[in-house]
Design a protein that fits this description.
Oligomer: single chain
Low-confidence stretches: none
Strand content: under 5%
Mean pLDDT: 83
Largest sheet: none
Length: 249
């Protein structure tokens, strides 16, 4: 059922529209181009002579771009409100199905990003397979978050705007176009609490630096405790509010 809903959502959002999927791919790539033009004069490298700044920027942004689907996941119950009154339908499947749809597009974007890296002389090695782990980790994080936000959205639609503002702030608190190593230690020790730092750095480790996630045991532990706590909170709130969904439609 999840796969069927995901394919339907993917076709509706990207395939049926003229150039729909091309625009969806071009959007994050074009955004990287804009950031590169703005920041390349200040950050002309990632801190390593071997890694071009555009590659550093690209790998960080495609990871954050997947997280950015949270706002769309938040509205999924409203988009499928005709299913809410079906007593036997599991509404918890809807955010998961839309997330799977987003992962389909994300896979295409990753392939395009790898192609760009190759044109820049960077050939991802065996650690590229590790992307599956980091993508799965972020998917678990987004599942919990979307169960929370999509449940609240029906009662408080303004949460969508709150998330949009929060995501803009979080973008600048995540090392997309800057390096954690360049910050004072007093600031870096707080910013590392952002769970997306683990994901963004993981994408770079997989595509650029060839470093395994097992080299960061404490960061890995922290992320999974955070993600699983969010998952538990999401399903708990969803189960509590689910009986009242039909009343607010």
């Amino acid at each position: 059922m999840i796969l069927s809903l995901a394919v339907r959502d993917f076709k509706r959002r990207y395939v049926k529209n003229v150039f729909g999927i091309l625009w969806a791919i071009a959007d994050p790539i074009a955004f990287v181009g804009i950031l590169y033009l703005i920041f390349s004069t200040r950050f002309n490298s990632s801190g390593s002579d071997e890694i071009p700044f555009v590659a550093y920027l690209l790998c960080g942004n495609i990871a954050f771009d997947l997280y950015g689907t949270l706002q769309n996941l938040t509205q999924v119950n409203k988009d499928y409100e005709f299913l809410i009154k079906k007593v036997h339908f599991q509404m918890a499947l809807l955010p998961v199905a839309r997330l799977v749809s987003a992962l389909m597009l994300h896979g295409i974007v990753v392939l395009v990003a790898i192609t760009i890296l190759i044109f820049n002389g960077i050939w991802p090695g065996i650690y590229c397979v590790q992307l599956l782990y980091y993508t799965a980790a972020l998917a678990v994080f987004l599942t919990g978050a979307s169960w929370l936000t999509s449940s609240v959205y029906l009662f408080f639609p303004d949460i969508s705007h709150v998330i949009a503002i929060f995501n803009r702030i979080l973008f600048f608190l995540t090392p997309i176009f800057w390096r954690m190593e360049d910050l004072p230690q007093t600031i870096a020790k707080w910013l590392v609490l952002n769970p997306l730092v683990y994901i963004v750095n993981g994408y770079r480790d997989s595509l650029l630096y060839g470093s395994g996630f097992w080299n960061y045991p404490w960061q890995t532990l922290y992320f999974w405790v955070f993600a699983l706590a969010l998952l538990w909170a999401g399903i708990t709130l969803h189960n509590k509010l689910r009986p009242h969904f039909a009343e607010v439609i």
